[in-house]
Each structure stands twice: as C-alpha cells, then as structure tokens.
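ok trying this again, last paste got cut off
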Amino acid sequence: MSITVGIIGCGYWGPNLIRNFVESEAARLRWICDADAERLEKISRRYPSARTTLDYHEMLSDPGLDAVVIVTPVATHYRFARRALEAGKHVLVEKPFTSSVREAEELIALAERAGLTLMVDHTFIYTGAVRRIKELVTNGEVGDLLYFDSVRINLGLFQHDINVVWDLAPHDLSIMDHVVGRQAVSLTATGSCHIQPGIENIAYVQLRFDDSFIANFHFNWLSPVKIRRTLIAGSRKMIVYDDIEPTEKVRVYDKGVERHDANADKEATYRTLVSYRAGDVWVPQLDPTEALRYVCAEFLDAITRARPSVSDGEAGLRVVRLLEAAQESINNDGRLIKL
C-alpha cells in the first residue's frame, strides 16, 4: 500500500522532492501546501491529482495523510515539524534540521514518544559519490583517517535570514559525519560580514577530535569561482571528491607519506625517517541515480519498516550541534568551543 505524502513549501527545493515522490511507486502525493497562491497554482497544474492548500493546518487535519515533507526556511522547521508530529504524521525535514539544538532534541523526543519516523534531507550523503567514499573508508581501503578538508565556495546565493555557515555547512558537515562516523571534541570558527551586517558571507570552521585527526571547512558566498572539493586523507590512500567534475567526481590516490622508526644512529637524516609513496590514481565507477530518489526511498522504507533512517533526527542533531557551536565561536572572535 502506498504511503500518502504532503509537501509544505514549493520554492527552490520543494518541486524536486515533489517530482521524486510522484515517481516513487511506494508513495502517493496527496497534498501540496505553500503560502504563495500564485506558486501553488502553477505547481498544481503539473500535479492535478494532489490537493492544494494555503493553510498547512488543513493538510495536517487529513486522517488519510501519512507523512509530511517540510521544505521551508529553517526558522519554520521546528514549528511545522512539531505540528506534523503532533498530528501523527511521519516527517522529512529539509536541511538544516532546526535552528537550535534544543529544537532538534525536542522533535526527536516527540517522534520517539509517538513512534514516528523523523528524517533530515542530508541530500549529499545519498549521492553515488559519497556512498562510494563511505564504502572505501568503511572497508579500510584508505587506512586510518588523517584529515578531512572541504571547500564550498561560489558567488552567491546570498540569504537574508541565515549566514553562509547555516546555508552551506550542513552539506559538508553531514558528509563528514556520515563518512568519518566520529564526533569532534572541540571547534573553532571565524567569519566576516561584507554585504549585510550580522550575516556572515565567509567562514572557516575547524573541528578537533580526540586524536590527531582534524577536519577543516571553508564556506564563501563571495568567491569569483565555484568550488565544491573535499580531500580525505588516509594512511594508505587519499580521496579527492570534486562535485563540480561532471564525470570523475571521485579520485582515489595511492599516495602518502610513511614514517620509519629512527635507528640507533643519531646521524640518521630526515630522509631515512620519512619516505613518500606515489602510486596509481583510480577513478571508481559511481551510481548516477539522482540522490533525491534515494532520499525519498529511504524515508518511505524507514516508515514501512519502522527503522531509523541513515539521516535520522540524531544525524540532524549532530549537524545542528556543530552549526550552533560554530556560530558561538564566530560570535566570540574564534573562541574554542568544547563539544
């Protein structure tokens, strides 16, 4: 039996989710909701079988609706998700999950009490590239992780309600959280506002872990070029993930540095202690399926099987905790924040 789905928000990202749920055999689009009457009318012509409403309360009062997808500004996520869960609906929320750790924790507790699925749309972890990278890290092919270095920069799109960290960082923080599978112990962040006071358009975030592993992130709305590149270094191999690259998004390098134990000879030179390895470069084949198809499938399957999803509320909370800490550090001139 198909799971009935309602979508709140038909702006930039909403139509993509609508299309994927419509194409899924496990779902049936039942409602489309948006506060913009003109936008709602336009999209309803494409999906005439779905009911439309300007009032989300009308949608939530429908006993025949199973699940709600929230694709609205982050400041509204908590309110919409809470109302949906209280109405007994399963919930999928666009990133970032919520505006605060407190809101995320409350939603998770509410979903658990009601026995409902709560999931966050961390789209990038469902891409063929990131799923392949996760596989390479999990099976030990890259060895012990040394660092995670990510750059996500472009010219715009400037937001009026959130800064560059809350806009772009959820992508890379969710990728790191998924691939690395460990939680940082501290964080530092710096940022600058060049266009709108109080809204950082450039930021640097660094995470420290309980060993020598380190993660560094650069986010920028004010760059002359668009770059979406991540470096993941291991003791055996290194990975370059370039999301802009059309055909070879992931490259695995058999390169590295090996340190040898010093011998008894105090005259031993640096070259005898360190050697460099330069082997082949491998481009793995990736699944080209649209990531949102897997997002929708994961949400529907989690509901059907009553199991946690890969990007469940806890995953969303971990990312929001990092976002909140990064903002606190930025507000305090880069102060170290313990996690």
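PB: full thing came through this time. The two ends are 43 Å apart (CA to CA).
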